Amino acid sequence: MSILIKNIKELIQVRETNVLKVSGADMKELPTIKNAYLLIEHDTIVEYGKMEDCEDIQADKTIDATGKVVLPTWCDSHTHIVYAGNREQEFVDRINGLSYEDIANRGGGILNSAEKLQNTSEEELYNQSVKRLKEVIKLGTGAIEIKSGYGLTVDAELKMLRVIKRLKKEFPVKVKATLLGAHAIPKAYKDNQKAYVDLVVNSMIPKVAEEELAHYIDVFCEKGYFTLEDTERILKAGLAHGLTPKIHVNQFNAFGGVALGVKYNALSVDHLEELSDDDVKALKGSNTMPVALPSCSYFLSIPYSPVRKLMKAGLPVALATDYNPGSTPSGNMNFVVSTACIKMKMTPEEAINAATINGAYAMGISNMYGSICRGKKANIIITKEIPSYHFLPYAFGNNHIETVIINGVEMS
Ligand SMILES: [Zn+2]
């Protein structure tokens, strides 16, 4: 099966060579071709160029994209879409004046989600998660990382990871799985945090590795959650079992988590709402991608990650949703890109680079995803008729997507 998309108003994120990430001032550059065509064969981008060079090309199906923009699908490198139930009551409680801490003390927060998940069957958990995955595919997400972390027991974490594995099997989107056993301290270990870290290190990680259920190891490194020492133990154990670090750091406090991540060659360090000069220094010259999650800042009314500081230092930035029931009940990458422009003062070029090629890098898949490049997977967004690609972040909150193609197949 081949698809020819022709008369494309502007083809976005075209890369002649297979760059794996873009950093610093290069993020301002978003290569495009106006009045373009794109040819897909099976699941692969095989050719593209100017319309005047398209005359002899034949395909099984032709899509006329007059007035429309075509870009690679979003690469959402940080989500928690496998969860049970929702937490809209806590949302209302917060509006009525309770703090995140008050809610956690009342048994809410991550522990609330963990209890619900432990009491939900694997089948039901899968069914709930399918709905969310279908929804984000419609919104243009073609590759997604999904974390465990609402189980907090060996069995429940394995249950979550098996659901992720099934999603990966049943859906054409690229899925990467992360073990986040150290997401919160379970109630039973409230007075013995070390014993819980022991459980993660000695039991959870080996079992997950044995069943090949995850690629990455994550820790919520934050005051009141896991310390630098806990984080280091868990990252070491993960690495010993072939799991690459990809960690939550600096959401509320900067105390060395970024440098620790870099020390263990983390693929990404995510959140960074708080960012010290030492953090920036640690990231320089590393292979670690800083990931900002603006929808989380929006929902919790906490600071936005100072991404300009990172880019000024010559560093790359990726954008992701953090889709989860507590702090970001939205998986809309279009909203993330808009919010990055509106609140973090990223240019549309920087935000689109951050949400495509750099997002792919933060999942370890940018050799095959995240740009329009010959030989890469045909994961494509065709917009509705819009004046320019700047319109995507500008006209926020509206759906500008008409068609999503994943692995060369149009999604309905
Ligand atoms: Zn998260």
Task: Kindly describe this structure.
This protein is an alpha/beta fold. Helices cover 35% and strands 22% of the residues. The protein contains 15 helices and 16 strands. The strands form two sheets. Strands 1, 2, 3, 4, 5, 14, 15 and 16 form an eight-stranded mixed sheet that branches. Strands 6-7-8-9-10-11-12-13 form an eight-stranded parallel sheet. Helix 6 links the parallel strand 8 (174-182) and strand 9. Helix 5 runs parallel beside helix 6, helix 8 packs parallel to helix 9 and helix 12 (333-344) packs antiparallel against helix 13. It is globular, with a radius of gyration of 21 Å. Bound molecules: zinc ion. Zinc ion (ZN) is lined by residues 78, 80, 248, 322, 324.
Euclidean distance between termini CA atoms: 17 Å
Shape label:
globular
Class computed from helices, strands and strand pairing: alpha/beta
Q: Which consecutive residue ranges, at least 5 long each, have pLDDT under 50?
A: none
Beta percentage is: 15-25%
Using the CA coordinates, give the radius of gyration: 21 Å
Main beta sheet strand tally, sense and closure: 8 strands, mixed
- Number of helical regions: 15
What ligands are attached or bound here?
A: zinc ion
User: Roughly what is the average pLDDT, rounded to an integer?
Assistant: 96
Secondary structure tally: strands: 16
Helix content: 25-40%
